[in-house]
Amino acid sequence: MEVGHMQPLDYAALVLFFLVIIGIGFWSKRSIKSSEDFYVGGGKVPWWLSGISHHVSGYSGVVFVGYAGIAYAYGTSIYFWWAVNIALATSIGAVTIVPRWPRLRRALGIQSPTEYLQMRYNKAAQLIVAGSGIIVKLLDVGAKWASLGILLYGFTGLPIWLGIILGSMASMLYISIGGLIADLLTDFVQFLVTLTAGLILFFSVISHLGEYGYTFASILGALPQSHLTVFNAGRGQGSLSWTLLYFFVIFLSYNGGTWNLAARFISTENDRQAKKAAFLSSALYLVWPLVLFFPMWCGPILFPGWTQAQAEAGLYASLAHKFLPVGLVGLVLAAMFAQTMSMCNSDLNTVSAVITRDILSKIRPAILELKEKESLRLARIVTICFTVSTVVVGLLRDQLGGVTGIILTWFAALLGPTAIPLLFGMLPCFKHCDSTAAIASMIGGLGMFAATQMGLQLETDVALIAPLLVSFVIFVLVGLYNKYVSKKEVPAEVEHLMVRLGREK
After folding, report:
1. Domain segments of the chain as ranges
2. In CATH, what number does 8-403 get?
3. What is the pLDDT, as a whole number, of residue 42?
4. I need a surface site. Which of 127, 305, 360, 487 has the fewest CB within 10 A?
5. What does pTM read for this prediction?
6. What's the CA gap between 444 and 256, in Å, rounded?
């Protein structure tokens, strides 16, 4: 593996990238007058910007670290179980869940995805969902900071901890200053940087294939047959059963169970804008990963004999060093920083909203009545504190199973119990699922995850979905009990909310 060989021009490209995004943060500050501006952009974000931001916020350095290793070791299956799954899940969400997010903002004036839960269930349910979700995001964002550190090491040889600090501090700076507006604008810039760098590397690899005796048409045929399958054999990662079950994790995540992605839809003006944003993001997921993954799929031919762990640590850096001229290597590294920071900064902004509006406001209700300047100051302080906490997780990544382990084990397993009452609580067919259903489903799902971590042996695909499945079953069963056994009345405010969320605007 080639590490530590960037030239001064490459470093200049990376520094320029950081200066641009920090500059956007300061420029965006003038548009931020209130916490509503800070957290949801005043509800006036256009669909195309929301869609691009949703798409970019779904990537991170994990794609270039953990997923690079998977692409090297297993081939094309990752496109189907990851990218196609996301595209399908987001398209279905566009006509079921996504339009309800801006309707929810218009109906209740929410600024965080979990803010409506007190009215929908009760204060306890809101606090449990918010608290559990914050733990999930601590792990998720921490893993992404760690991936940045690994990428920086692969490109420059600099310590992993330094990449974690640089990426997190830059994100914290421009998000705490410019809020969602800065987040969305930097997402767009980061998309352009990533688009440019990704296409350059894609065509550079293709142009050098002749040196290895291959063409664009023949290179994939030279790979092992097992690398050219839609699904991997067995029941492990990338298998048919894994792909089908992982779809449900993806569906919950990309339609708002992952809070930063919900914020992209909440910030749009109306349901039609949110739908268009979701369909745009879905289309990009069908096309763009093919460009990103192609060089990784060629890895076993270009860099034979590596282990999956070696590919995780250095594949993308080695591709850039080998096939790109001086200056463009730094651009590729900037693009990978861009992808990761895009996802993380949107997390920082949204989690800050949840902490402020859903947790701190319960401890001190006067927070919701703060003047504009005071509410902005609090929002920025909370953003900084949460960022520091995620950095600690990133530094402790190895103790938590590494980058891929955190994302595919901890995050995937813990997402379901928090997302089910959040998303399904907006659907009329689940209106009989009350606070008991919400709390019991979360306890059951988290209990199942704890059991798998304490020794309960399950097949890989089943272990992935088990906490989500337990949560869903409990949520539905309690709702059915309320409807048909106890014949519990649905509160009038919940009935009214269901009506408002079902109306197109």
Report:
1. 8-403
2. 1.20.1730.10
3. 54
4. 305
5. 0.82
6. 21
